[in-house]
Amino acid sequence: MDRIVVQHSKPGNAVGERWSKGSGAGLNGTKDQDKEWLAVSPSGDRVALCWTEFDHYGSEAAGDSTRILCSTTGRKAKKWSEPVSVSAMEGNCLDGDSTVEGAVPVWIDEMTLGVAWAHGEHIRWNVSEDAGATFRSYEQYIADIIGGWDQVIPGIGRANGMPVTGVAREGCTPEGCMSIGPTSAMGPLIRMCGSFGRTTKARRGRSLCGSTTTLQASINSSLGWRSTR
């Protein structure tokens, strides 16, 4: 898990059949990279990639921690920017409730990038107003995850209760509002409206223009995964 690798496939009749050689993000010595998610800006010119970096996956050492990182690139994802920190608070490396995981970016407009993730019994939120180059020095609590994100479903086992985000585009109601999809324990969808960089407010409501997962469909034929050492 030494880096995140992204490939893209050109649109057309053969989409998904031929892929680029791929480019990597997040390589950082022996640290482990995990739980990646992509988002594409409204114009399609920018791609944001967010994930969790572990100092040492599974480590119980007090000095080892996790953090949410973000990197950006252009339409063809040939070269990724140096990752920047999104989370103000770090977690442990045990891959459980006290680990910061599940980072999901969403483009509010061409320059404003929001990221939601899970930490303990909370969904956290941070914003970049310079297209992912920097993020605020603080993060916001926006919702509860009852029982934490490391959930157990009878008959299935562990289920990761992490957020999924989407923004209502032109033609949706109310336009410009953001939805954060529920986990199995959260209950109703969380809707956030207002100035996302400054005075974001959250409230419960129905999904915007159908499923929020369709709002993330703009990733098209981009695909990210973890490579192994």
Question: Can you characterise this structure?
Answer:
The strands form five sheets. The chain has a four-stranded antiparallel β-sheet, with no helix packed on it. It is built from one helix and 17 strands. The chain is globular. The chain has 229 residues and is an all-beta fold. The protein starts with a strand and ends with a strand. Strand 15 and strand 16 form a beta hairpin.
Share of β-strand residues = 35-45%
Question: How many strands appear in the DSSP assignment?
Answer: 17
Q: Indicate the structural class.
A: mainly beta
Going across the major beta sheet, what is the strand order? 3-4-5-6
Shape descriptor reads globular
Q: Please report the distance between the alpha carbons of the first and last residues.
A: 6 Å
Element string (H = helix, E = strand): EEEEEEEEEEEEEEEEHE
Number of helices: 1
Largest sheet: 4 strands, antiparallel
Rg from Cα: 17 Å
Low-confidence stretches: 184-188, 197-229
- Measured as a percent range, the helix fraction is under 10%
In round numbers, the mean pLDDT is 80
